[in-house]
Predict the 3D structure of the following.
Amino acid sequence: MKDIHSEQKTYKFGMVIDLDKCTGCGACMVACMAENNVSFRADETDKLRSITWMRVYKMTNGLPFPDTEVCYIPRPCMHCEGSGHHRPAPCIAVCPATATDRDHETGIVSQIYTRCFGCRYCMAACPYHARYFNWWDPKWPKGMEKYLNPDVSPRMRGVVEKCSFCYHRFQRAKNKAYAEGRREIREDEYQTACAQACPAGAITFGDLNNPQHAVYKLKNSPNAFRILEKLGTNPKVYYLSTKEWVRRGVDHYLEEEAQD
Amino acid sequence: MKLDRRTFVQFSLGSAAGITLSPLPWKLTDDIAIWTQNWSWVPVPERGEVSSVNSVCNLCPGGCGITVRKVGDRCTKIEGRHGYPVNNGSICILGESGLQLLYGPWRIPSPLRRAGKRGEGIWEKISWEDAITQVVQKLRALRQKGESHKVACISGPNSGTVSQLFARFLKAYGSPNFVQMASGRDTEELAMGLMHGTASPVAYDLEHASFILSFGSGLIEGWGSPVRVIKAHSIWRTRNLKERATVVQIEPRLSRTAAKADNWYPVRPGTEAALALGLAHVIVKESLYEHRFIDNYTFGFEDWTDSSGGNHIGFKRLVLTKYAPEAVSQVTGLPPRKIIDLARKFAKAKRPLATWGRGKGSRQGSLYECMAVHALNALVGNINREGGICPQPEVSTRTWPEVEQDEIARSGFGMPRLDGAGTDRYLHVKYLPERLPQAINEQQAGAVQALLVHEANPYYTMLDSTAVAEAFERIPFVVSFSTYLDETAQHADIILPNHHCLERWEDFHTPIGLQKPILALLRPVVPPQFDTRHAGDVIINIAKRLGGSVAKAFPWKDYETLLKWTMGDKWNTLEKRGFVQEANYKPPAWEEAFKTSSGKFEFYVKALERQGASQPQDIRCLPHYKTVEPEGDHANYPLTLIPAESIRLANGAIGNPPFCTKALPDTVLKGNDLFVEINPKTASNYGLSEGDSIILETPKARAKVLVHLFEGIMPEVIAIPSGLGHTAYDEFLAHKGVNANKLMGVVEDPVSGLSATWGARARIIKV
Amino acid sequence: MDSALIPEGVKRCSFKKFAIWIGVLTIPTLWGIYAALLCWGKALNQTNLNDNFPFGFWIVADLGVIALGAGAFFTGFLRYILKIEELKNIVNFAVVIGVICYASALGILGIDVGQPLRGWFIFWHANVHSMLTEVAFCITCYFMVLCIEYVPLVLENRRIDAYRFFHFLSHRFHQAMPAIAAIGVFLSFFHQGSLGGVPGVLYGRPFAYRSGFLVWPWTFFLFILSAIACGPCFTLLITWITEKITRKQLVKKSVKETLAKIAGWLLASYIVLKIIDTIYWASSTAPRVGINFKSFYANQPYGIWVLITEVGILGIIPAIILITKQGRSNSALLILASFLNCAGIFMNRWIMTVQTLAVPVMPFDKFASYHPNWQEWATTLLPVWIGAMVISLSYRYLPIFPQERELNPA
Ligand SMILES: Nc1nc2c(c(=O)[nH]1)N[C@H]1C(S)=C(S)[C@@H](COP(=O)(O)OP(=O)(O)OC[C@H]3O[C@@H](n4cnc5c(=O)[nH]c(N)nc54)[C@H](O)[C@@H]3O)O[C@H]1N2
Ligand SMILES: Nc1nc2c(c(=O)[nH]1)N[C@H]1C(S)=C(S)[C@@H](COP(=O)(O)OP(=O)(O)OC[C@H]3O[C@@H](n4cnc5c(=O)[nH]c(N)nc54)[C@H](O)[C@@H]3O)O[C@H]1N2
Ligand code: SF4
Ligand code: SF4
Ligand code: SF4
Ligand code: SF4
Ligand code: SF4
Ligand SMILES: [Mo]
């Protein structure tokens, strides 16, 4: 049977984040909030109820002063590929209402806020804590709703939200390309808000399948790795680090397992 | 009866079945679901025509180029401007949050007059006409009483001309008391003026350096022009392994910069100068210095004899005799081996560079420490050349006509400055803002009768907040030009709100630390959202209404006219392109570089001979180490408190916007309680564990905080996040945490009078 | 006053006493309703749930209550399909308990989901790969089956039965019962299993994840087995409580022992399989993703005691009591074993839900713990009070216990 989508160009968008460069500055977190109309509250200190599609984690090597080392790990949604049709991303597999799915054109793991009914099974499934629930009605102080981006709908309470790889930017780029009679969008036409903002240039975004794109080469670097790779979630977000303890610190190893 | 009941039952069952099978419940169910998807209280952003406008961000000294995305007449996003020489498309967390400042509830909607007690927050809205009239009447009365010198102005403008307008106003009006807020550049300007002969901040060629030795500079915490420095940091990390730059961080705490550095050398807080001189010792002793530069273009390296035959010791002898690794090790706590090793690596690197300025570089600091670090740069000869330092250049603009003062102005302007800057005691400095509160509090008669505050928030950012509050109490008339309801505005009598930086024209000069001069233009991206006015227009208007020579000093119709006039032939480019850059600027060669009396780089600063101080003359003129002791004795205050600065937390005049506060980790704030960092070893001495409540006390103040155990902080040292503890603004910022400035007093640098505070002595009590 | 409604030949307390009893139950019921209204009105910030614990007490209660409710379908299965005639004396009560359990589960879910008003999207936009979809379909269908099983009980009320139409209808229902029971059994096996699949398929959560057979993780089968092992015990437990409250014997000891014996052997086999499953998981499934299973128990309160308690104290002990004749013939021991068995199920469901979420998966993530707040307690206990009312009403007005007249002659 012919694939009904074969007419369409398909991509596999992904990210490579260089942890040697990442300074933990948090610009990506806020760029994401500003781009995607993420709400905020007076007290956001309970990080278990604070919506940050992009969250910068801090990992330490566990050694005492003065041998302590710290690494910052920015964590968007990994847009897990899983392993094929029978084992898609952990969250996709479980959502009873098909409110989250893999977009066949881009590989992006979508989230339909208006379909999600807030059962939160997807959150239980995601090992990366990439999914956030709206515990409150989102509210903007009077006047502040003026800065809201019309390309991204604000969410209502009771639904789950997460990083979309700024999907609306893909749509914008695609519309532009089509209007100009092109089938393919250029690498620089579709960049995520976090990658664009990052002062360190630590985040590279592009089509993992396209050898012309920077991410293609970077993900094949000997220093490239993914978080919790052994689980088989098959994330589309890769990391780079020259430090052994960092590369090892993001997954589980049995004592007898040799250093890589 | 029985029949009735049966009918009833049948009817009920029948209608139940009927309703279920009809479309009604299904339609209703669907409608209810749709309703939940369209709640009226969830905003639907309006659509509109999309456009973008370029401007410059002045929320910090970074001066990044920004592109504001607009939908209709709304700004929806601030992004870094592509191709802009400072930041080329990138942006920092604060700049990214700028729209929250523009549209936030902390904006001041119109001119306000205090209606309750000071600081009570009860305001009366008044018209611009009324507001300006009241200020003019007050200023006129003071001038008529011959008390014009009792008007002071604190400014922290984000660009040359507006701040200069305030300075000019005071000059024309008749007061010497124009002060700019403190920053690290004050000390750099002084050190550069003395050693180099050019009183400019230091510009660093970070991008080309191959070995960066940072004396506590928060290179990725907002030091210098924050985005530019982080970009340089990435360059250091990108070059191939052989070319990769080495970064060494000297700091008692594993800051982000230390964490990202190749080596972290914790030293006891405040001993950085000793380490710099210890490194100099090794470099000199092993003859690793740049002989061509030292031999030909420096003064005071070797011992020398003056014209009257007096013998003086040079830098070489000083470091060789007093700063041997063992001695320096005693002071800093760093093993001698490491000192020797570091000195060799630094001197042998291709393009070594030492940076000065703790944290974000927003505090002043010790002059000799700054000189000691620059002596290191001189030793390796990286002055005015690739990968080195030079005095920061500026794009020149048209000079304003001289102010013609009338008699009152002349006599008022001639009075001594309250802060003492420029007097024999503080010969080389322009402003001593941190001395101001003390000066006000010490004088019995109201030394300041009126205070104008522009683009600064001294009530919050100055050290020793209690003294600052007292000084405010002693000033009967405070006028704030703030855009936001910050602490200073909260304690003002009249607020003349300025436009937000996205609503106004303004010039922005070379961001701190850049070697290629840039002149840039802020432009109104949106019309004013509130009944605000440009501070430049307001001060011009006030001058004109005062009349006479004051009015004459301001021959421009309004600020925009003045700005165009000042920018001269550069205006057209500025308006079209947004900036003018002298991309080919190169600092002068060593032959022409130094404007000191010797015409050379001075290790031995002759200009300091005249400075009355307790030190023997030779020591006084040479970079040396002398502890800057914070208040309090060691027995009562056995611990040391240092501020921890973070790029995620604005600690200057701008309050931290909600997005930035949201991005703070949960090891900084919990509810409204602030965490301080303590080494687990120190904590265990006090029986403390994670999250415990303690009282932190310094000679200045006490505060209740929570314990965060962190292996990355030196034992016996406590770090307190800087930038919280606001009392003004709104529910998103006010009353969260503790203001670090409250806990630290001003420690005067003995030679310059600048504030050399780097921390405080402290003790903790478990509660 | 309501004597006309009370089954013939049995004694009931005075209406006044009954009204007071119902009144007493109303108080915590109102408390629960208030908590539910808070959750609906002010959203789920009213709970202690958070992004680390998207599932909490409610989901545990759901899983638990559905397992306990398994007494209904399983007794039906034994009675109508395996034709163990003796069990007709308890099957009615098992059905009442089942209805309450399943209604509770649905009710709690209605509070638990963030957007209850579009909860039906689970049917409309069903994702057939999701265990939860399977659960939702089966539970809903099975709840309807339970209602159909409950209806003939209601029709047996003296006044209703007086209508010829209803008398006739009741008769028809009884005839159809084996078929209905068969449908119920089929549905139940599936959703009990799917509930086990809910944690078992979470391959991103190594604590819960299990390999399995075709699309079903081992937990699928363990949940079925544990549910049918504890459901009958729950029926016995509630019967015992009802007997204590009414101060009457309602079901013959032999009936109870038959049920207990079956439950005991099921529990014993469950525990054996659970131990095999645990060993396989600890020695093979977890190490395959680099995890030493001991690290799952590295944080208190989720230490290794959890495993020992669940499998040992709440599994092996009641199993031994129930499968030995001496054990189950001692009423006190029988009740103790039933209680331990039910508690074991709850603990298992708690562990599979809450501990699964508590164990950090990213090694640099922090451990967080969770406990329900009063709103969660109030809403979760709400079905207990309503259930008590339903049982009270059913007992008072319906001939639930066929042996009551015989055991309590007037
Ligand atoms: N680390 C760090 N870096 C900083 C800062 C900091 O706090 N910390 N501050 C930053 C900030 S906020 C700014 S605004 C910049 C400041 O940068 P600038 O605005 O460049 O500040 P100045 O060096 O004072 O230069 C003002 C210019 O105005 C000229 N000038 C003086 N009087 C007049 C006059 O009457 N007419 C005219 N036409 N020109 C006059 C001076 O000669 C000088 O060229 O530096 C930034 N750099
Ligand atoms: N002698 C002399 N004195 C001067 C001047 C001078 O030219 N000469 N310049 C004056 C001028 S122009 C000014 S404006 C004042 C400066 O006075 P202030 O306005 O007080 O400026 P800073 O203290 O440098 O504060 C800027 C603040 O921005 C915040 N910040 C910086 N980067 C970031 C970031 O990435 N994220 C977050 N969240 N926050 C960040 C930090 O809190 C930093 O302290 O100094 C004045 N002082
Ligand atoms: S913006 Fe870049 S440097 Fe900053 S935290 Fe994010 S990835 Fe790291
Ligand atoms: S990271 Fe989590 S939310 Fe994102 S695709 Fe993977 S499982 Fe789903
Ligand atoms: S919370 Fe929403 S997206 Fe997640 S599983 Fe449930 S319905 Fe799907
Ligand atoms: S890709 Fe877009 S949605 Fe995802 S974290 Fe980055 S900015 Fe946010
Ligand atoms: S670094 Fe400073 S100037 Fe640049 S965007 Fe950030 S706040 Fe604005
Ligand atoms: Mo400024």
Notes: The mean pLDDT of chain C is 91.
